[in-house]
Amino acid sequence: MTVLEQPGAYRPTPPPGWQPRVDAAPLLPDTEPYRVLGTAAAADVSPDLLTRLHRELVRGRRYNAQATALTRQGRLAVYPSSTGQEACQAAAGLVLEERDWLFPSYRDTLAAVVRGLDPVEVLTLLRGDWHSGYDPHAHRVAPLCTPLATQLPHAVGLAHAARLKGDDVVALALVGDGGTSEGDFHEALNFAAVWHAPVVFLVQNNGFAISVPLAKQTAAPSLAHKAVGYGMPGRLVDGNDAAAVHQVLAEAVRRARGGGGPTLVEAVTYRIDAHTNADDATRYRADSEVDAWRAHDPIALLEAALRERGLLDEEGARAVRESAERLAADLRTRMHQDPVLDSAELFDHVYADRTSQLREQAAQLRAELDAEAGEGQR
Hints:
Blueprint lengths: L46 H26 L13 H10 L5 E3 L5 H7 L3 H9 L8 H4 L11 H15 L5 E6 L6 H13 L3 E7 L2 E2 L2 E2 L20 E5 L3 H16 L5 E6 L18 H8 L3 H11 L5 H22 L20 H21 L2
Parallel strand pairs: 1-2, 2-3, 3-7, 6-7
Antiparallel strand pairs: 4-5
Helix pairs in contact: 1-2, 1-10, 1-11, 2-3, 2-8, 6-7
């Protein structure tokens, strides 16, 4: 008798009565990224939303340029620019209600600014100063997450806890295409679907995980298709179409808030700048590829739609640019001011109550600082 002939043995095919737990068809994404701008659907978008998105895109482009310049001046240790991805950032920052939570990655500083955070506080972590730089609970924005995808399980946990408590809260978690290759991505989506958690995952597929192109990360038809394996809907959207990204995210947020569970959204976009200021992107991609994506610039797409509907003229465009320049000037001025830091704050916000080891370390640091101060007075 072979192993497969034994009673109860594993067999390579399921019994005839097997049926899928969920019908996969409604979960499948479209074959092409969803678009609004340049289509008949654009006429149905609120003028106020279009003009607000445009303002945030223009200000975001200038914010990215200014933050990148600050790295060259030594005022930031590193800056991962989101130039070219501003449509995703603006939509993510605007789509949530005040009570909801945003879980950003390190490249999502602009989304946090659009959400309402002080730009200087958002950049504090990348400056190397003081914890996350802002109070996450006060703003409902989790700390910028540098390790890939570790913010995703946190978003699921918060959303699940809110559901258990009966709170009307949705979590929006942002991640790059490289983050989908991490185990945290799998764990977060699996838990979110099993728990029916009110969370939305936005994957900004900008083509590269640093220097690794998407084709070397996955053989899936799209990243949105990965949703089906977890039992949630996958949506594919043009990530440079700000109106489309906002509409898809808004639908996913409403679905989550209404008890429909999680959604995975893949926004197809492109990282125009290098991975960070420390990266040389010319080593792994051609200028012609970048130029092709510049022709699909999110600001140009939205401005064309606004002008076609008579919602933007030269005076209005100039006013938006001037607002962006004021943001950049304020950021530049304040970032050139040296912060006053207290080394003892290293031990704050690690635990609600300091452990004995932290108390010992804090006392040792204080003794060393006092000794140095005494030496300097001699």
